[in-house]
Design the sequence.
């Protein structure tokens, strides 16, 4: 991390000449501007501006109608990008470059834009802090490495995709040694950028990787995740490869997840831990986890935001299909880790690699805090193969289903506000509408002759 004074010295010494000033969009991507470092020091460190459509577009940067926040009729005005100088950091994989994350403010009132992902998470953190609690989280980033760069693969129409390896490399040291020309600089550059990287490993499919980052307070965790995901794509590209966070790139291949580990702390003590309680999980922890589980269908969109996200939820793939918890059982939607220790926590396994960490973490917090407010009782843990448990609650099986549970969630509307839920419901609807109008290769191959 950098202080503002250190940045001044580096600019004066000529070792830094570029500052990336970034916001996080609805899809969890970095958007912004590259400033000459001296201009940033002179004025842009206070604020800069961007078009307000950046929080009302899809992956293709289309400008769909139906948003109250911005539209063609309203003229697409500006937002204020307010740099959070505590996030200043070097980007060692880009020469002479540092970056800073911004909060997004209304251009006229200078109040936070409520549907900005960073603000959505901050609002739920504030709810926890009002109870004297600090949310602590960690995310796991899974992705695939492919032969060829993004540009090369795009020119083929994304046909004949070839993973970097030819076999399942879960925990595989030999195969991952062959990938160290990408993964070693990824670990080291991120660590030098202030991201507390723990490790990388091969995951349970050919060409699949996992990046693990040490737990932190919720906002820092989301910042780390976003920067790490961006860096993974850039560093892979620099080494002639494409890194994809698409959850399900092939129907015969295991998908990619982003598991979220979370607990609450009071000061320096873990509030989930009670040495005398069953599994070491405190009453507060039981209530929080019960809320996450009860309301999982409500917030699934924030964990699985695209049509493709739901292709991952398949039996026997380590991706969950049920909204139940278990003790160290990877077939359940929620897995207790660290049973009986101060590290006791719940891992939500529902989220895919395409989630926006700010929105996902905010949704989990909203549901868990509701569980505390309602003093919900946590059901006994499930055991065995949860995929075959007919009594367990189901995760919404499609984006269309998740749109309904999101839009109709009284819990999320109370926790996040109608404005935020209406905004992201429209985001989800547009994604479904765009898919519905397209004729897929599968339909043509299946019915062109045989129908």
Sequence:
């Amino acid at each position: 991390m950098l202080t503002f004074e250190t940045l001044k010295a580096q600019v004066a010494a000529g070792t830094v000449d570029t500052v990336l000033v970034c916001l996080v969009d609805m899809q969890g991507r970095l958007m912004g501007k590259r400033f000459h470092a001296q201009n940033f020091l002179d004025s842009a460190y206070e604020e800069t501006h961007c078009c307000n459509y950046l929080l009302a577009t899809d992956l293709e940067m289309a400008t769909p109608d139906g948003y109250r926040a911005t539209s063609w009729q309203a003229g697409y005005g500006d937002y204020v990008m307010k740099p959070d100088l505590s996030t200043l950091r070097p980007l060692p994989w880009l020469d002479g470059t540092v970056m800073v994350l911004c909060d997004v403010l209304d251009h006229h009132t200078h109040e936070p834009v409520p549907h900005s992902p960073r603000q959505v998470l901050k609002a739920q953190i504030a709810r926890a802090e009002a109870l004297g609690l600090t949310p602590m989280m960690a995310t796991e980033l899974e992705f695939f490495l492919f032969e060829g760069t993004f540009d090369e693969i795009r020119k083929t129409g994304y046909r004949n995709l070839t993973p970097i390896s030819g076999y399942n490399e879960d925990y595989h040291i030999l195969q991952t040694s062959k990938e160290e020309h990408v993964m070693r600089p990824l670990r080291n550059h991120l660590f030098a950028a202030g991201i507390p990287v723990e490790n990388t490993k091969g995951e349970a499919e050919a060409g699949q990787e996992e990046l693990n980052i040490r737990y932190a307070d919720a906002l820092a965790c989301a910042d780390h995740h976003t920067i790490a995901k961006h860096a993974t794509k850039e560093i892979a590209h620099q080494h002639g490869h494409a890194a994809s966070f698409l959850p399900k790139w092939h129907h015969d291949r295991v998908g990619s997840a982003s598991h979220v580990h979370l607990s609450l702390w009071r000061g320096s003590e873990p509030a989930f831990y009670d040495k005398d309680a069953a599994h070491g999980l405190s009453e507060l922890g039981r209530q929080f986890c019960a809320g996450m589980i009860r309301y999982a269908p409500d917030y699934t969109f924030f964990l699985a935001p695209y049509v493709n996200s739901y292709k991952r939820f398949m039996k026997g793939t380590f991706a969950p299909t049920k909204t139940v918890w278990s003790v160290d059982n990877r077939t359940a939607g929620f897995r207790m880790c660290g049973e009986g220790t101060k590290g006791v926590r719940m891992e939500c396994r529902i989220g895919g690699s395409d989630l926006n960490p700010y929105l996902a973490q905010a949704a989990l917090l909203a549901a868990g805090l509701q569980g505390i407010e309602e003093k919900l009782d946590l059901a006994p843990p499930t055991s065995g193969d949860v995929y075959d448990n007919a009594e367990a609650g189901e995760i919404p099986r499609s984006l269309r289903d998740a749109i309904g549970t999101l839009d109709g969630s009284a819990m999320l509307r109370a926790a996040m506000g109608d404005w935020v839920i209406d905004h992201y419901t429209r985001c989800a609807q547009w994604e479904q509408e765009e898919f519905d109008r397209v004729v897929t290769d599968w339909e043509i191959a299946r019915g062109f002759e045989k129908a």
Notes: The first strand starts at residue 18 and ends at 24. DSSP finds 14 helices and 16 strands in the chain. The radius of gyration is 22 Å.
